[in-house]
From TrEMBL:
MF-aspect GO terms: L-aspartate:2-oxoglutarate aminotransferase activity
Protein name from the UniProt record: Aminotransferase class I/II-fold pyridoxal phosphate-dependent enzyme
InterPro entries assigned: AspAT_Ic, PyrdxlP-dep_Trfase, PyrdxlP-dep_Trfase_major, PyrdxlP-dep_Trfase_small
Highest taxon in the source lineage: Bacteria
Species per Swiss-Prot/TrEMBL record: Nocardioides caeni
Keyword annotations: Aminotransferase, Transferase
Pfam family name, one: Asp_aminotransf
Species classification: Bacteria, Bacillati, Actinomycetota, Actinomycetes, Propionibacteriales
Length: 426
């Protein structure tokens, strides 16, 4: 059944529909739901897939004979670096395996750039009058809060279906040396699910920048997190950068947070030889080595990169139905009303929902009152400021399927109610 766009309804029809949808909303509140779609966390059934880790490692040494219980090996176990290298499409020699959080590695890189500068910096970034970062929006809230915390200003560019808007980025970086870097989630971006094409990646790696030490933090958190049988390969950031004469521009990050245990996985970084040596030198003042017991556990659990890929298909079997439920709830109620657009991602952890301009905060408030917790409106923008107040990030992986269905049916009611209220006011 095709529905009439709400904006085409007469004042009377609008008022009648508002009455009906208010009744739907009251019925929703009556149900006393307590559901949470706020954070991209794995469900407990996903965590169970990796319970085998709890009985590992069975050995005490890696292939090179290193006793993993002892100190040392700052760059991580070689066999694990090889697995990350295969998954990320980089040389094993470029990889460092660290602790449990890639976000922490990004923070280390930024603080080192601020305090010491990179290998090609004229001076530490903190000695510049202003430091700015280009932020594709909507984007990952923790990237933005980290920059704000470190005093780095944010300038936004649109995130398109094939990656950041290259022309907008070029315009910001070409003449302003205070623009020192940018953040990209290249594959199945948080929250839009966009995949950065090789063409876009090549332009970003090759573009002229006024800052000689421009950095692209290439946060490939969802590199292998496919939701369909089409397992898209990420663009080769390091190769493209090196080919265009800017080998130090990108630093690649990833982790097993959404592969094994979100809180007890392994994070990795990959970079040019110069960047890698620079990172390890800084790290050497902060650590005598990573948790190699956990590294060995992961090596034994997976065997190789194909072991990871097979494991990711088991994740997909568990979470793809939840993404289908989001799509069915939204299109079931909202298709044709012309008040919302949403992504149908082929990977990653999120659905990006854009509602009628000016109504996102109202939708989140209505949902909250009905017992459905959503990520605060605007959180995918620097300082939580969505200039159009229309963006909502949905994270369907953590609740069980029946809860996703119930929550999303409720969200669809809230989206329609907020739109009707707004249209009835105009
Ligand atoms: N980057 C992105 C884009 C993410 O969505 C997340 C998790 N929500 C992270 C990084 C966090 O990674 P980690 O657990 O390795 O710190």
């Amino acid at each position: 059944t095709s529905q009439t766009p709400l904006s085409a309804l007469s004042a009377d029809d609008l008022a009648a529909r508002l009455t009906t949808v208010r009744a739907d909303y009251d019925a929703l509140k009556e149900r006393g739901l307590k559901l949470d779609l706020t954070r991209g966390k794995p469900g407990s059934d996903q965590l169970d897939l990796s319970n085998g880790l709890l009985d590992l490692p069975s050995g005490l040494k890696d292939a090179a004979g290193t006793d993993v219980r002892n100190y040392g090996g700052l760059d991580g176990l070689a066999e694990l670096r090889a697995i990350f290298a295969d998954l990320l499409g980089v040389d094993a020699a470029a990889v460092v395996c660290g602790g449990n959080s890639s976000l922490t590695m990004m923070h280390q890189v930024l603080t080192a750039l601020l305090l010491k500068g990179g290998p090609d910096s004229p001076r530490p970034w903190s000695q510049e009058p202003v430091v700015k970062f280009v932020c594709p929006v909507p984007g990952y809230d923790r990237h933005f809060t980290m920059l704000a915390e470190l005093g780095i200003e944010m300038v936004t560019v649109p995130m398109n279906a094939d990656g950041p808007d290259v022309e907008a980025v070029r315009a910001l970086v070409a003449d302003d040396p205070s623009v020192k870097g940018m953040w990209i989630v290249p594959t199945y971006a948080n929250p839009t699910g966009a995949v950065c094409s090789t063409e876009v990646a090549a332009e970003l790696m090759a573009m002229p920048t006024a800052a000689p030490d421009f950095r692209i933090l290439w946060d490939n958190a969802y590199a292998v997190h496919h939701l369909t049988g089409e397992e898209i390969k990420s663009a080769d950031a390091l190769g493209l950068a090196s080919a265009s004469g800017h080998p130090n521009r990108p630093i690649v990050f990833a982790s097993t947070s959404k592969i094994t245990f979100a809180g007890a996985g392994v994070a990795a970084l990959a970079a040019s030889p110069e960047n890698r040596a620079w990172y390890l030198e800084r790290l050497g003042f902060a650590s005598i080595g990573p948790d190699k017991v956990n590294h060995l556990r992961h090596i034994e659990f997976f065997g190789d990169a194909d072991g990871v890929r097979a494991h990711m298909r088991r994740h997909r079997d568990l979470i793809a139905p939840k993404f289908d439920a989001v799509e069915e709830a939204l299109s079931g109620r909202l298709s044709g009303l012309d008040i919302a657009e949403w992504t149908v991602p082929s990977g990653g952890y999120f659905v990006n929902l854009d509602v009628l301009d000016g109504t996102a905060s109202r939708v989140v408030a209505l949902a909250k009152e009905a017992g459905i917790a959503l990520t605060p409106a605007g959180s995918a923008f620097p300082h939580g400021d969505d200039p159009r107040d229309r963006n909502i990030r949905l994270a369907p992986t953590f609740p069980v399927l029946a809860e996703v269905e119930a929550a999303m049916a409720g969200v669809a009611v809230c989206v329609e109610l907020a739109a009707l209220e707004s249209l009835a006011r105009d």
